[in-house]
Design brief:
150 residues; globular; alpha+beta
């Protein structure tokens, strides 16, 4: 695989963008033979796209940017709102999300499962991004790592 391969895809600013983004990430990583964990990339991408749909105005499209590298991948979601997302660095005294709430876990997942994450202002709004390191050959994915012991 070359050091960097990239895709840039415009998605509609509606809820149908979420499954579209999941499918695009899964296909892009599989077709390129990317060394990053596809399940984690798909989950985190869906969280970022869902946040962009829910928390930003629907004036323009959402843009998905995928950069594959020999050491893993970087995925960005661009939207038209320059306001930063919630805190991507969890303070030590922040309480855990309420177990009964249906939302509020996307950025927690992003912080916990990515190698790095952040955001930056762009000419048209902002980009929220994360990186995933290459998974070692034969290493289990995150689902296997958190499976309950029997």
């Amino acid at each position: 695989m070359p050091d960097t391969a990239a895709w840039r895809i415009a998605l509609p600013h509606c809820t149908s963008a979420v499954p579209m983004a999941r499918a695009l990430i899964r296909s892009a990583l599989a077709d390129a033979g990317a060394p990053a964990d596809r399940d984690t990339a798909e989950l985190l991408t869906a969280e970022l796209v869902a946040n962009a749909v829910e928390h930003t105005g629907g004036a323009g499209p959402i843009e998905l940017v995928v950069r594959l590298r020999a050491h893993g991948c970087q995925i960005e979601v661009h939207d038209g709102d320059p306001q930063p997302p919630g805190d991507l660095v969890r303070p030590p005294d922040e309480p855990h999300p309420d177990l009964w709430q249906e939302n509020g876990r996307g950025l927690l997942l992003l912080r916990a499962l990515s190698s790095e994450c952040g955001h930056r202002v762009t000419a048209t709004g902002k980009a929220v991004w994360f990186t995933l390191a290459a998974r070692l050959a034969g290493a289990p994915g995150p689902a296997a790592a958190v499976a309950p012991a029997v």
